[in-house]
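Reviewer 2 asked us to include a model.

Predict the structure of this chain.
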Amino acid sequence: MSLAIFDLDNTLLAIDSDHAWGEFLVEQGAVDPEHYREANERFYQQYQDGTLNIHDYLAVALEPLVKNTPEQLAAWHQQFMISKIEPNILVKGEELLAEHRAQGDTLLIITATNRFITAPIAERLGVEALIAVEPEIIDDCYTGRVSGTPSFQHGKVLRLEEWLKDQSVTLDDAWFYSDSHNDLPLLEKIDNPVAVDPDDILREVAMQRDWRIISLR
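Predicted model (structure tokens):
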């Protein structure tokens, strides 16, 4: 039995759930459409380019959690799951999860998208263990700040190391599936790194290092 780690966005999903949530908020009239759409596109491009300042992004991305009630957020997320997430869950991704599950592997999703967005998605995929960006909550309300280290780039390595301290599994013979060069710090630490429908940078690195390359599309 091994640890099987999965990135979420553009790996198990055919979309980036963080970016899609921003688009959904614009469609719902929940945010200033012009300002938020511009910021959402700009930050997403920076993510793809590998230049994203995660704290600058989260200062904008977590703001809607602060300005709306838990009831409203829950209602929106239910609609979001139906309209944006369910149609973009990759069948081959679910099959890959099932394959590792049948082997008795421990399944873990690790993502740079925040827990509010991703916890229901992980539950839908049947994956109990989730490492995500943790929005700070005080007195049952979001503060707009982040609790702990954001699970982005090298932060995924740090968060995984913290998580492993309380687990019975190790990284021996572990797997990590990801589409993004932003995940190279973690891919480089895993015995079985797998590039999934990789971006151009990750594809080049994977080919140079003879990593497995697969498609779930």
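Residues 3 and 171 are 7 Å apart (CA to CA). The first helix runs from residue 17 to 27. We have added this to the supplementary material.
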